[in-house]
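Morning F.,

Quick status update on the modeling queue. The single chain you submitted on Monday has been processed. Sequence for confirmation:
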Amino acid sequence: MPKHSILAATAAVALVCLAASGPTPGGPARAAGPSPVARSRFVPGPCPKPPEPIEALGRARCGFLEVPENRARPGGRTVELAVARIPAVSAKPAADPVVFMAGGPGGDAIDDIPFLVDSGLNKDRELIVMAQRGNLYDRPNLACPEIDRFNAQAVGLGYGGQEAERLMLTAVKECRDRLTADGVDLSAYNTTENAADFADLRKALDIPRWNVYGYSYGSDLALTYLRLHPEGIRAVAIDSITPPRTATLPWTWSSAAEGIHNIFEACAAQPACKDRYPDLPRLLTEQVRRLEKQPRTLSVRPPSGGEPVTTVLDGGALLNLIVAFTPRPKDLPAALDELGHGNPERFARARAAGSVQHVGVSAYGLTNSVACGEWAPGYSESDVLKAGRQAFPGWPDTVLAQVPQLPFQYPVCGIWNVPDRASVQRVATVSSVPALVISGTFDVKTGPSWAKGVARDLSSSTEVRIPGVGHWVVPQSPCAQRVLASFLARPTAPDTGCVADLQPEPFTISPK
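Structure tokens below.
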């Protein structure tokens, strides 16, 4: 699923992107087209150089993995995937490293290194980070500056309106035409190829065994990798679960409803919050319906500063800001109460933040190839609407017709035009490899209840649910960090004791 805004926003703004046909940022320029190789290989090289330096890269060993773009076409072109090896803090690290699989799809893994280091992933073992194919610092880079520019413009448009759809589809077509003109095989940017890349990386680095940690889409990828390439995997930890078997576009509605319900239930369990905000479900429905009927147009400054921008706040925008965790869950009841009393400032500023786009950072080419090849097939726009009505009865159809965070995805997929991969991807991973399955109760992107079915198929799994935490749990929860460290030390007997006493932090109570 798209990257958690709380964790991603501060790092994503620092990154830049070169055109898909340009050189790898921070590395030497190479020939215009990748040359065929008989097999995958790792080539040492300089580390990526983000505009805001990442301290851990200063002591890392880096390079790129060269792999076939499409393994079904021997002798075809290759792609180059950025790799960073972060050394362990311990003077006597364990022999088996941890390899990280980022979310998205399309989120930059290099950007996540500070969160991983702060979470202790390299405390006792080497941490290996590889950008998934098409991401920033890869070659080719499947960024879509055209979509970034649309997203900046979209804050002044109705979320699901005709003008927004027209402009977005134009941007998608321009990006697709440019990438395919550069020779990119969009059908090759999928979870199966991503998984094979990681299998090839382990072999290319001559690592007998390693541990896998992935979050969000990275959990989808980790489970696919475990299913297709189980050799050499000591243990797998997955966080904020996207189950390959059930990850579809309609599925996102049930996840949004579950996470929002859990936030409201947690408020109701805190006397101060319950007394101040006694009926949040009704309040949210009222505000979605009101704003969808009469959108608010405001001139507000983005949170990062700068000149005021025209911002439209309608029902679809409100729902998607909540899914993006802006404002934070602890502030959501107060923000909704303010909105109900005629003050939309918190939500309007959060929407205005979208006007500040960092062009070329997100690999929308990978996002669309996965979403259109793996999540969209077998369902239709009417199925999305039906799922939305089940999740949020009484909400306007104009809101429920758009997949949370993936508006107009079916028309987008009509343009993107990649093969249907549902039959090969929507498969359960059944394994006895030790696994840790982590969820946050406030996750509105990948609902925590979906972890249970995944854990059931992993016979040596431990399932952990962290109260009061949303998407991408480990960087937000010291307890989850301790559990993960314990799991990596003893995969079949992790210490989960810290979970029992956890409670959501108090919600913000605004003055009346």
